[in-house]
Amino acid sequence: MDSSRTADTGGSLAGADSARSERVDAAPVERVVSLAPSATATLSAMGVGDAVVGVTAHCTLDRPVVGGWLNPDYDRLADLDPDLVCTADALQVEIRDDLRERGYDVCHVEPATLEDVLGSFATLARAVGWPEAGDRLVADARERLAAVRERAEGRRSVRAESGSGEENPRPVVYCEEWGDPPMAAGNWVPEAVEAAGGRYPFCDPGGRSHEIARERIEAADPDHVVVHHCGRGDRVAPDLIEERDWDIDAAVHVLDDDLLNQPSPTLIDGIETLAELFDDAS
Asked: What are the structural domain ranges in the chain?
């Protein structure tokens, strides 16, 4: 899950806290239970997935399942005897607090912006005792983002030199995180679109995802509609937008929702995917 639709915090790594966040010089933990798909994906990308001994039903790592994202089975979790439990998002705050009352060390993050997401990589790495792995992951993400931005600027320059560029040649992009009712994606998505070379006039960076009226979408006249409905993967019919009879002329793209909804290294994959879509359309 880890949906941007649920996050409601901003600032510098909003809501980040960890009982082990300062244990940089401590030995790495040996047993981690991850109750957040984003944490599972991030730990795997760091190369420390072997330490993960339990996950939720929504995680892709093949490990014993300890329940759902919002309904973990505490008996199963106890059987795994973790040194650390990872949670994320505002909707898991009560779970975090419950776990701490039960005596568990918990690393909890609530990223709201793109910079927060990168900061959460470092927070998780410190929590598991592998700060260098987090540093490498952050450096790799920044390098990839810089390459995407450079490519986007090159695309703008080519359009301007050819005389095809308007005052602002960036394509307008509407990203939809939920369909009933339609919800414009917030949090890190505006920055993801900007990094990929687009404009996102539907939400400020770090702002909460919100229901949006068709009139606002039509007034923005998007060039691209990106559908990434929470929990649906890429199992959304692209003609969904056409069936709404909106007065827009936009290319419609359906993405696996993890590419934009999950605050993990997968988000960097999503930004690169957006850039490719914009490249193909230019």
From this structure: 17-137, 170-281
pLDDT (0 to 100) of residue 97: 98
- 37/263 Cα distance (integer angstroms): 9
Give residue 229's pLDDT.
96
pLDDT at 114 over 80: yes
Homologous superfamily (CATH) of 17-137 is Nitrogenase molybdenum iron protein domain (3.40.50.1980)
Closest CA to 41 of 56, 21, 20, 19: 56
CA distance 107 to 16: 8
pTM, rounded to two decimals: 0.88
232-247 burial: b if 16+ Cβ within 10 Å, else e = eeeebeeebbeeeebe
- Choose the CATH number for 170-281 among 3.40.50.1980, 2.70.50.60, 3.30.1330.10, 3.40.640.10: 3.40.50.1980
Q: How far apart are CA 170 and CA 80, in angstroms?
A: 50
Q: Measure Cα distances from 136 to 118, 131, 140, 141, 275 in Å.
A: 11, 9, 6, 9, 23
Among 15, 12, 82, 18, which Cα is nearest to 52's?
82
Place of tokens 């990589």: 121
Which residues, at least 6 apart from 232, have a Cβ–Cβ distance to it below 8 Å? 257
Identical fold, 17-137 and 170-281: yes
pLDDT digits (tens, 9 = 90+) for 38-77: 999 999 999 999 999 999 999 999 999 999 999 999 999 9
**69-108, pLDDT tens digit by residue?**
999 999 999 999 999 999 999 999 999 999 999 999 999 9
Strand partners, 183: 178, 211
List residues bridging with 88 in a β-sheet: 109
**Using CA atoms, how far apart are residues 108 and 101, in angstroms rounded to an integer?**
14
